[in-house]
Amino acid sequence: MKITDIKLTVVGVPRHTGFINKHIIVKIYSDEGVIGIGEMSDFSHLPRYAPDVEDLTKVIKSVLVGENPFDIMKLNKELVGNFPEAMYYYEKGSFIRNGIDAALYDLCAKYLGISVADMLGGRVRDKIKVCYPIFRMRFMDEVEENIEVVRKRLNQGFDVFRLYVGKNIDADEAFLDAVQREFGQKVKIKSLDFSHLHDWKTTLQAVKRLTKYDLGLEMIESPALANDHEGLNHIRMRTDYPISEHVWSTRQQYEMIKHDSVDIFNISPVFIGGLTAAKRAAAVAEVAAKGVILGTTQELSIGTAAMAHLGAALTNLTYTSDPTGPELYIGDVVKNRVHYKDGYLHLPDRGITGLGIELDEELIEKYQVKDLSWGEVSVHQLQDRTAQTKV
Ligand SMILES: O=C(O)C(=O)C[C@@H](O)[C@H](O)C(=O)O
Ligand SMILES: [Mg+2]
Ligand SMILES: [Mg+2]
User: Fold this and answer.
1) Which terms are listed as keywords in the entry (predicted)?
2) What ipTM score was computed for the predicted complex, to two decimals?
3) What whole-number distance in Å separates Cα of residue 133 and Cα of residue 242?
4) Residue 386 in contact with ligand 1 by CB distance below 6 A
């Protein structure tokens, strides 16, 4: 089989919060008539510049056309050469590689008539426990709005949540207090995510305030400045809770092991540049005797399905994971969205080939936008993932 063409389509899909995220839907065509699909998810993150999609298409064609899609390791190496790793969480080259890598897996698995999980190591599980995100509050009046989100999502079966914290600790505390009073043991807050906002010592003070509540906390995430591997270790040694951090490059993961920075690696294909890289990062975690969760950038269904296939094969997925993107957006671009039940992300059936997701061309047309350019958006919105415009 040979790759014959590549198509990239940009879509802008609003979240229930009003915040719009731009993604690129990838199609890889082959001389066997099989088409692989992938997703370069959520370009709506800092830094506030965007790749030119026409130019990007030309570059990716120059790397892939004429190649055998089964040469996944070779093609990943080529992709890293063209879109190198950086020591930055939201490096857009990783998003690009991720969308291509997923489409290669989808194409090859469809050709073989098997599910992507069966290319990645089969199934240790066929559902993954996930949590619903509560985005960062800056104002007290956002507390009640977020309690309402918990009420609504709990009714839909999401009993585990994670909370982005660190800009208004009074609001964070008021939220946790209200959750404990209203829901008691019915709801779990599995993680407090500080998103690298503070140095570790400032975070430690906040952690002392926010861990008074008995809400089943599994981990504290990103509690030091980005790439402060020693800082992570300092806070890790001073709190009883496991520390988690995202993996965004091979070097950064190595440094975190060297400095014994974390208990849990938060691994998302989008931030490490694909299923292949994510699988390797999970193996590295296993070697270092660390736990793993699947993180998220809030993917649509294609990106989330790819993570479900990856998670199915991981033996060290020891804590509650994060991918609930399709529940956050008001729409999607597929005929069959990924399926959530009782707070679990369910894998597509094993008999369904590839990622198990079918594109809906009408929905693609509905959400298509001309490019990845930025509208009116503030740094706060980009950091906090809310439509909140107050400063
Ligand atoms: O755990 C995280 O950190 C995230 O989920 C990052 C978010 O910013 C996410 O990418 C989003 O777009 O909401
Ligand atoms: Mg995080
Ligand atoms: Mg994101």
Assistant:
1) Metal-binding
2) 0.96
3) 19
4) no
